[in-house]
Amino acid sequence: MNLGTCGLVLGRTRRKAAWTGFWAAMLLFAVEMAPVRAEVKVTDFGKTADGTPVKAYTVTNDKGVSIKLLSRGATLAEWHVPDKNGQMADVVFGFDDVAGYESKGNGYFGATIGRVANRIANGKFTLDGKEYTLAKNDGPNTLHGGEARSLDKVVWTPFEHGDGRGVTFQYASPDGEEGFPGKLEVQVTYTLNDDNALRIDYKATTDKRTPVNLTNHTYFNLSGAGSPTILDHELMINADHYTPVDDTLIPTGKIARVDGTPLDFRRFHKIGERVDELNDKPGKGYDHNYVLNKRDGELSLAAKVRDPKSGRVLTVSTTEPGLQFYCGNFLDGVKGKGGKAYNYRSALCLETQHFPDSVNHPNFPSVILEPGKTYRHTCIYQITTE
Description:
This protein is mainly beta and 386 residues long. It is 9% helix and 37% strand. The strands form 8 sheets. Strands 11-12-13-14-29-23-22-17-20 form a 9-stranded antiparallel sheet, with no helix packed on it. A 5-stranded antiparallel sheet has the order 1-2-3-4-5, with no helix packed on it. It has a 5-stranded antiparallel sheet with strand order 19-18-21-24-27, with no helix packed on it. Strand 4 and strand 5 form a beta hairpin. The longest helix is centred in the N-terminal third of the chain and has 31 residues, at 3-33. The chain is globular and about 60 Å long.
């Protein structure tokens, strides 16, 4: 082969290599730019102390945002969302294994709460002339449905939507469980859409008159779970009124205006701006039920949270009349996912619900579910950036 022929072959080889590299780069670009297909992946998450298997369901939307749901407690365990620069972070509290969720350090992280969320005074209520006695697991009161078999501690039966968008969990609570009357058939459905909105739909029926008040107890830090504080987060709550409480956080029965108090979040305030004014009050900070400005059963705005650091914004909408705002006053450094410490006031909860102790306050919206009727409650948490 002469030098001319050699040069021709070498030139062709180089051009071929260049085109091959070009198309390889274009293929890689196309793969990176292609939308992520919504899907649900199922994995084993371990077993409870009594040997019951727990399943994990990871739901991913078309934008690559994902949540992880656990059959124990119908729990929201992870939520990975981008910040203003596109960097992903998990923004909710949880544990890496079942043992963590069964430990004393679990402050109801991400769980479905019931049968009756929040507090019932003295662990008692009277219905149709009969007094019912419940477990007292919060001083003199019952908190979040009881002790051993509240909804956050049982393993639910899950099934996928079929559209790759979410999971439904169901549980049949037998008559008398945790002291409550009636067999309660409960469903909780989580749906993640492509606008990064997580919709939670609750449904329940009963064969006896019984109180029902379900909610979700996710702890949020919009800078990422394990970040040191939420006192720099800015909060707005759509409420002119709240329910004052006694020394054990039981409502007095009054409905008071937020005007002139540290509880007034009708416009955005940093959570840390006035929280220390409540240090000597029941709850040792924000742990209050707000009476939302809304019509009964209407799905409407309840609250917004902004994190200036990450640019993430959490919007909360609900059909419920109340919202419990809690700012992590009792977090004590328990180690969560990845060994991260969940420290004092490093997360907030915004629990959509009926008012605490409603079963003992006839002037509050009723929580009594009748046989033949269906309890329904919708809450939407949406995380965006600005």
